[in-house]
Amino acid sequence: MADIKAEGSKQRDPLSSLKWASREEARRSQYLACPIRQVVSRFGDKWSMLVLYMLHTSETGVLRFNEIRRLMTDCSQKMLSQTLKNLEQSHLVHREVYPEVPPRVEYSLTETGKSLMPALTALIAWGKEHFNDVVTD
């Protein structure tokens, strides 16, 4: 009889599994909807912050595609084009097309992009200060 009770106590309540799955699903939903995750994913890739900083530090605040490409020599044309499109879709960069032959396209920061610059500048300052601590080859 004691063996039956011991085995019976090992059985799980079917509802506890459902509650656990429900909690896990809620955590996953919160993770996927996290504002930090959603926002940083828009410009946290290898090239976006560099493009944003190039536009921010340019004399006029406006750069053409080839000007950016000359500054970022290790970024391929395809990758730069994709990065600029992503930044435009995220409303961080404005793309101005002029009806000329050949067409002239200029990029600049939007107001949202400009509002990101203090945080990006602080991150760059932190990176310079802690470069040797973080980058160890």
What does this structure look like?
The chain is mainly alpha-helical. Strands 1-3-2 form a 3-stranded antiparallel beta sheet. The mean pLDDT is 86. It has 8 helices and 3 strands, in the order ααααβααββαα.
For the biggest β-sheet, the strand order reads 1-3-2
Kindly provide the radius of gyration, computed on alpha-carbon positions and rounded to a whole number of angstroms: 25 Å
General shape: elongated
Q: Total strand count, please?
A: 3
Helix content: 55-70%
Number of helices: 8
Largest sheet: 3 strands, antiparallel
Strand content: 5-15%
Low-confidence stretches: none
**Helix and strand run:** HHHHEHHEEHH
Overall pLDDT metric? 86
Q: Alpha-carbon distance between the termini?
A: 65 Å
Give me the secondary-structure category.
Answer: mainly alpha
What's the assembly state of these chains? single chain
Mind sketching the topology for me?
Blueprint: H1 2-10, H2 14-33, H3 35-43, H4 48-57, E1 62-64, H5 65-71, H6 77-89, E2 93-98, E3 104-109, H7 111-129, H8 131-134
Helix pairs in contact: 4-7
Provide key terms for this protein.
137 residues; mainly alpha; 8 helices; 66% helix
Concise description?
With 137 residues, the protein is mainly alpha-helical.
